[in-house]
Amino acid sequence: MDAAFQDALKQAATINVPTAHPRLPGPFGAEPIIRTRSLGKSYPKGPAVFAGVHLDIRADQRVALIGSNGAGKSTLLKCLIGLLPSSEGEIMTLGESFHAAPTAAQLQRLRRQIGFVFQNHGLVSRQSVLTNVIQGKLGLPGSWRAWHQSLADQAWREEAMQVLAEVRLADKARARADELSGGQAQRVAIARALIRKPRLLIADEPAASLDPAVGRDIMQIFSDLAREHGITLVYTTHDMQHALDYSDRIIALKAGKVFFDAPTGDVSLRDMDGVFHA
Ligand SMILES: Nc1ncnc2c1ncn2[C@@H]1O[C@H](COP(=O)(O)OP(=O)(O)OP(=O)(O)O)[C@@H](O)[C@H]1O
């Protein structure tokens, strides 16, 4: 590593609390996969959820988004990927730049490159695990075949089996989704996101309803898959240990602002505490 790059890393590592400005400069933040400038969001008739948010999220990072209940984490995630219109500022995600909301064509291109996992796995309970995974292809070209595994061609079924193997669930392919435990269902949801071959994986509290051991297992799977496949992972969590153990970078929201945005190794428990207390 050359000296200039090391300096840039050191500079990037200085924690800056509180700030609404980007702090990952130069070489550390090559071409970002997500960039926002002066991003703000209010719901109709409501106060601002957040304002003046500047972010530069680099490809291949695992980013934990933390903050109290109602801090705006889910709202920010949805704005970043165009599922909710923002109220002010600019967004660039996966090369698509937009104010407020993406165009229909932009949204379609974004959806093709993004995988989603939510707290409630959202599987179709009466369908098989295999069909649920193949349904991850919906929205991609030729995707009417993804409604059921029997319509899908052999290549898609093989892909589905491969991603199920990656989450250690190949043996459950023929089981019905409602026969799975919470942790298994969440692993299927990850496989369903993975079959899209996403560049960006968005997860909103993916381990929230799981017991501690299973929750850690799910976070480890996310983390390993993101690394192995070079996927950028952005997730929200209320578990500070998950944020510390399974991210390269932590972004904290507090009182409608970015409270800190720093490499995980530079975030102390005291910094974390400041997110939740005055
Ligand atoms: N559809 C909506 N209409 C109006 N207000 C909303 C809507 N969704 C969220 N809000 C409000 O926006 C604020 C931020 O909510 P959001 O769900 O983004 O926070 P969060 O940090 O994800 O919270 P949690 O950790 O509890 O999931 C809250 O005050 C919430 O009440």
TrEMBL record:
SUPFAM superfamilies in alphabetical order: P-loop containing nucleoside triphosphate hydrolases (SSF52540)
Organism: Ancylobacter radicis
Organism domain of life: Bacteria
An example molecular function term from Gene Ontology annotations: ATP binding
Residue ranges occupied by any ABC transporter domain in the UniProt entry: 34-272
Pfam families cross-referenced by the UniProt entry: ABC_tran
Entry keywords, A to Z: ATP-binding, Nucleotide-binding, Transport
InterPro entries xref list: AAA+_ATPase, ABC_transporter-like_ATP-bd, ABC_transporter-like_CS, MetN_ABC_transporter-like, P-loop_NTPase
Recorded family membership: Belongs to the ABC transporter superfamily.
Protein name in the entry: ATP-binding cassette domain-containing protein
